[in-house]
Design a protein that fits this description.
496 residues; Rossmann fold; 10-stranded mixed beta sheet; two-stranded antiparallel sheet; 12 strands; globular
Length: 496
């Protein structure tokens, strides 16, 4: 089954991977911050770990589709654990999540020694898991097999026929998700995954756990901390998205972030003669001309692949904006593209969608869309999507028009479950990391998150990339001191 990756562009850019357990029917209501939550009780869930690498264990855990109706079905979560290298000094469990939504998270534990500082490796069992519906957890969301299609769609439709083609593609995708994964689509919300975190805690036999979430992992962690505050030992939210906003507000915040970071890229390229896309100091004008040309005349790269359209180009730009280290690749890709060679731009596009060498794709994007639409679909009709297009054009004149027509959630087959109001009330100090040049979760979003949490503490990292951990010793030292010794960072800490 094939379809164009472009139908997801608006959704993606405007947000932007052995044993079981028994859970009884009995539930105990817990109230936190005015929200009624149900916490499973009775028989404790069990994870039976087995070794799967040096210092690493793998396991599975059963969690119900619906904690209020545990008999209707179960997910089998896949987990990995990197054991504390100094067990006699072990503090406890540190759960880690890479974001998405929809990213598989086992790798964060499997490769923990390449990601986290020694202080954390020594003192914590670092546990990553593939959230419900994602990665190797089963059943997982599976809608389509390929993101390639020909002819390409136009993300900035100029005719009614082009607009209707975009809507039809979105409808086809939603229908495919319903056909292939309809049984589980109502049960993959952020709130349900946050409850899974508590089930993992209970399975570990821990009264409290620590948490380290990146990007959307910040929203997941903040939801868990609000729902189960007494179980929170510590929590770090890196690259925090703006919480308690509408989907539209989230989308406009993010597209402004991508636009601002891309403008920084173009300004730097214009001022640096060594930049391959220098264009006599007029990189912005050269990009606009190139984008218009590609919109009119897509560049074909290889048989069977989606050509480089405006949608592919903007996805490549978005991929490069996640990390300044990719700017060099983008500038050369843009130079090649204006000379008729789209290979580098298509590769950046493929990196964004995590295309494998054999042409296959993980289920990240299907899970991403399913979770996003279930939490908050935003516009609930095609007409409402179209009515908001001018807001995107105003927020981001260069990237906004191609990101405005996110029809999928408006056509989603499952009614939204909603999102709880996040407060962090009673969870104690929570550390939030925001990065000055973060396109996907702009600094203003992280600042908002720190402000709305009852005890939020913001660390600002000066860098052009998404998330701030491992940028420098300043932020790492502050994070380690907090997670290990519960020492909160100094007010106004800025790490350069």
């Amino acid at each position: 089954m094939g379809r164009t990756s472009r139908l997801l562009l608006a959704t993606l850019l405007t947000l932007s991977a052995c044993g079981g357990s028994a859970i009884s029917d009995e539930v105990v209501p817990v109230t936190t911050g005015g929200t009624s939550i149900t916490e499973p009780s009775g028989d404790s869930p069990v994870i039976e770990w087995s070794s799967c690498g040096e210092s690493v264990d793998c396991g599975t855990l059963l969690v119900p589709y619906d904690y209020d109706k545990p008999d209707i079905g179960s997910f089998t979560l896949r987990l990995s654990r990197h054991n504390a290298t100094k067990p006699d000094q072990r503090i406890g469990a540190l759960l880690v999540n890479p974001g998405g939504p929809g990213s598989a998270g086992q790798f964060l534990a499997q490769y923990a020694d390449q990601i986290y500082g020694q202080e954390l490796l020594d003192r914590f069992d670092i546990i990553g898991w593939d959230p419900r519906g994602t990665g190797e957890s089963t059943p997982f969301i599976d809608c389509v097999d390929s993101y390639d299609s020909d002819p390409p769609s136009d993300v900035t439709p100029e005719t009614e026929a082009e607009r209707l083609a975009l809507i039809a593609e979105a409808q086809d995708f939603a229908d495919a998700c319903q056909e292939n994964s309809g049984e589980i689509l109502p049960y993959v919300s952020t709130e349900a995954s946050a409850t899974d975190i508590d089930t993992i805690r209970r399975a570990l036999g821990e009264e409290q756990i620590s948490y380290f979430g990146f990007s959307y992992g910040s929203e997941l962690g903040a939801t868990w901390a609000t729902m189960f505050p007494s179980t929170v030992r510590a929590a770090v939210l890196d690259g925090a998205s703006a919480l308690n906003q509408s989907r539209l507000e989230d989308s406009l915040t993010q597209i402004r972030g991508f636009e601002a970071t891309f403008q920084n890229f173009l300004d730097r390229c214009s001022s640096d003669r060594s930049c391959a896309f220098h264009s006599d100091g007029k990189s912005a004008e050269a990009y606009d001309a190139l984008a218009a040309e590609i919109d009119a005349n897509p560049v074909f790269v290889e048989a069977g692949r989606t050509p480089v359209t405006l949608g592919v180009l903007e996805t490549a730009v978005a991929q490069a904006m996640y990390d300044e280290a990719s700017w060099f690749v983008l500038e050369r890709g843009l130079d090649d593209l204006r000379n008729g060679d789209g290979k580098k731009i298509l590769q950046l596009n493929d990196d964004y969608f995590q295309r494998m060498p054999d042409g296959s794709y993980p289920n990240l994007l299907e899970a991403f869309t399913s979770i996003l639409c279930l939490d908050d679909p935003g516009e609930t009709s095609v007409d409402e999507v179209d009515a908001n297009v001018p807001l995107y054009e105003e927020a981001a004149p260069r990237l906004g028009p191609g990101s405005a027509r996110g029809y999928i959630c408006a056509l989603w087959p499952v009614r939204s479950s909603g999102r709880i109001e996040i407060t962090g009330k009673g969870a104690g100090p929570i550390v939030v990391i925001g990065t000055t040049g973060d396109a996907a979760t702009p600094l203003e979003a992280s600042q908002r998150t720190a402000d709305l949490l009852e005890e939020g503490h913001l660390i600002v990292v000066v860098a052009n990339q998404h998330t701030g951990y491992n940028v420098n010793d300043c932020v790492n030292d502050a994070v380690h001191a907090y997670l290990v010794d519960l020492e909160t960072p100094s007010e106004g800490l800025r790490c350069k």
